[in-house]
Amino acid sequence: MTELDADTMRIKRLLTFIDEIRSADARETVPPLRKAAAVAIIDNPFAGRFVHDLSPLTQASEAIGREICSIAVRLLAPDRAVSYGKAAVVGINGEQEHGNAMLTTVFGNVMREAVGGGKAWISSMTKRASPGAMIDIPLAHKDALYVRSHYDGMTLTLPDAPQPNEIAIIAVYATRGRPNHRVGGLSDADIKGQDGLT
Predict the structure, then answer these.
(1) Is the pLDDT at 4 greater than 50, yes or no?
(2) What are phi and psi of 82, to 5 degrees?
(3) Can you give the residue ranges of every domain in the chain?
(4) What is the pTM of this model?
(5) Which helix H or strand E contains 175, and what residues bound it?
(6) CB within 8 A of 117, min separation 6: which ones?
(7) Are 106 and 156 in contact (CB under 8 A)?
(8) CA distance 160 to 131
(9) What is the CATH number of domain 6-190?
(10) Could you give the CA distance from residue 198 to residue 125 in angstroms, rounded to a whole number?
């Protein structure tokens, strides 16, 4: 199977999340750290059967990614996203690999486009789970992976999702590094933004 009906890959549900940290560890967080996530719930066309060619999922991830990345970035406005991460939760009738197929470079490029570009590879997490799943999505700086201050994450609980034959695709963005970060490493002010590492 190399082609899927457009309705099969349409977004059935859209979930959004905002987490704004204004103080942490008895210290004010200035500016506040804001994280936003958008989650697309879709039917999994390959649930319950083994299929070698998962490229239809990868192809579908572009349009789905463009929509949810745009939403997540808008949730942060007027602030600018400087870090990102991606994830997928596959319902129990599917495979973890179905989620991975939707988080390839195709999806990653859309994530970068939504914030006007990014040099670093995008941290990700996939798993298979029942409805009500909790998942930790890792975050890192969009232009330089070695910026330790931006190693962070966002934990989401997906209400009533994914159902056994569904996939949840997740895009997360954040406006700054962790509150009170102090473990050294490259400063975001010193990023060269050339190799995705420094």
Answers:
(1) yes
(2) -120, -5
(3) 6-190
(4) 0.94
(5) none
(6) 142
(7) no
(8) 5
(9) 3.30.1330.110
(10) 23
